[in-house]
Amino acid sequence: MIGYVTLGTNDLEKAAKFYDAIAAELGVGRFMEYEGGIAWGDAEGGAGIGLTRPYDGNAATVGNGVMVALQAADKAQVDRLHALALDNGGSDEGAPGPRGEGGFYAAYFRDPDGNKLNAFVMG
After folding, report:
1. For residue range 41-81, what is the model confidence (pLDDT) as tens digits?
2. How far apart are CA 7 and CA 72, in angstroms?
3. How many CA atoms, within 13 angstroms, populate the side-chain half-sphere of residue 24?
4. What does the CA dihedral 88, 91, 96, 98 come to, rounded to 10 degrees?
5. Could you confirm whether domain 4-54+66-121 is CATH 3.30.420.10?
6. Cα–Cα 20 to 30 A to 7, which of 14, 63, 75, 90?
7. Mean pLDDT of the 98-122 span
8. CA distance 116 to 118
9. What's the Cα-to-Cα distance from 7 to each of 39, 62, 90, 102, rounded to whole Å?
10. Residue limits of the VOC domain (predicted)?
């Protein structure tokens, strides 16, 4: 079971704007803030996402093949999350739509630092 995922950032203020919008659409907000980092989610349960400047002082970089998947309530929310990502400094990695078989519907995008995310719904 995943408790939370942490991604690196080189511009916490810019990235925070992006994640504040995404988290609000998912019905959660910030539950932890500290110098150099912020976490979004529900402190009482469910997986969360954190953003931090790397502790070693080096630049944050993107993991090749790494992606965080955000579970949406329905297809309309997938569409809204994709639009919010683009409106808040993110970039498109795949417009909302069906993928494969079994009712998997997803949209792919990157945050302002280049970390890859998707929003999805099954069925």
Report:
1. 998 888 899 999 999 999 999 998 899 999 999 999 999 99
2. 20
3. 10
4. -150
5. no
6. 75
7. 95
8. 7
9. 10, 9, 15, 30
10. 1-122
